[in-house]
């Protein structure tokens, strides 16, 4: 079995694969102050609940955008699975031509997403990752990672708004019934929801003008079902695209002579 770890600024998403079958997946908070022992205890419990054996894990593959988590992840992998972790961008390189300059600046999650989108949906492709940041990633018709765009994420934007506007209240972001809000909460919900939908639609239109109108659009990340699922410009909503990309990157590596 394979343990895939997608470590973002807000959440740590992990999945256990048996072959190409995802046997279980979970979302934890990314907390730099937590120890490897604390994470290990939580993962041990989650796997046990799903009748997944720790001893059956033959590889641990990681895509992380949080460098300070590296020692914790290494200790977790060694202690819980007796495995040296395979880190995308370090000791594990995706089989994907990168035209970004410098290539080392591309986040490992963006590369892994591009691999998964290319293998699952074809090229050209646009991957919209709606997480802590909102990223747009372009895969050319020739299967190359070209680059993209980075904007604030949904949660990041809301937190900044609350810090700057003392009279605004916290609310649960759901799809609003109408665009014109009749009170402050409705107005904030509409502005956030429709604002990010419009961001996705506008950026996709600009990317397609450069990539081609036939580019497939894939939405992933924690907000993908809410925001990506609300616009017809998104062809596929795939919240676990990064986990699938980690599996594919590992399998392609293991198949090399």
Give a brief outline of the structure.
By secondary structure, the protein is of the alpha/beta class. It is 38% helix and 23% strand.
Looking at this protein, list some descriptive labels.
about 260 residues, alpha/beta, Nucleotidyltransferase, domain 5, 5-stranded mixed beta sheet, 10 strands, globular
Give your account of this protein's structure.
The protein is α/β, with parallel strands linked by helices and 257 residues long. It has 2 domains: 2-87, Nucleotidyltransferase, domain 5; 103-247, ATPase, nucleotide binding domain (Nucleotidyltransferase, domain 5). The protein has helices spanning 36-49, 70-81, 108-121, 154-164, 184-211, 224-227, 241-254; strands at 2-7, 11-18, 21-29, 59-64, 86-87, 125-130, 133-139, 145-152, 216-220, 236-237. Strands 3-2-1-4-5 form a 5-stranded mixed sheet, sandwiched between helices. A 5-stranded mixed sheet has the order 8-7-6-9-10, with helices on both faces. Helix 2 links the parallel strand 4 (59-64) and strand 5 (86-87). Helix 1 crosses helix 2 and helix 3 (108-121) packs across helix 7 (241-254). The chain starts with a strand and ends with a helix.
């Amino acid at each position: 079995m394979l343990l895939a770890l997608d470590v973002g600024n807000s959440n740590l998403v992990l999945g256990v694969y048996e072959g190409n079958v995802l046997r279980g997946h979970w979302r934890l908070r990314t907390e730099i102050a937590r120890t490897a022992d604390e994470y290990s205890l939580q993962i041990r419990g989650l796997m046990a609940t799903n009748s997944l054996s720790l001893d059956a894990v033959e590889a641990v593959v990681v895509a992380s955008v949080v460098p300070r988590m590296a020692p914790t992840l290494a200790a977790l992998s060694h202690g819980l699975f007796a495995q040296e972790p395979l880190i995308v961008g370090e000791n594990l390189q995706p089989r994907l031509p990168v035209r970004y300059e410098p290539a080392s600046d591309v986040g490992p999650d963006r590369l892994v997403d591009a691999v998964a989108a290319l293998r699952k949906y074809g090229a050209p492709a646009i991957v919209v990752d709606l997480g802590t940041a909102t990223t747009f990633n372009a895969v050319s018709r020739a299967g190359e990672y070209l680059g993209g765009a980075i904007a604030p994420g949904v949660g990041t934007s809301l937190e900044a708004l609350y810090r700057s506007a003392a009279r605004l209240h916290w609310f649960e972001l759901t799809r609003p019934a109408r665009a014109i809000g009749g009170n402050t909460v409705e107005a904030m919900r509409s502005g956030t929801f429709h604002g990010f939908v419009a961001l996705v639609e506008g950026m996709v239109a600009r990317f397609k003008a450069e990539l081609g109108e036939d580019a497939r659009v894939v939405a992933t990340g924690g907000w993908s079902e809410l925001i990506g699922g609300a616009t017809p410009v998104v062809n596929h909503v795939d919240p676990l695209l990064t986990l699938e990309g980690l599996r594919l990157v590992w399998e392609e590596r293991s198949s090399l002579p």
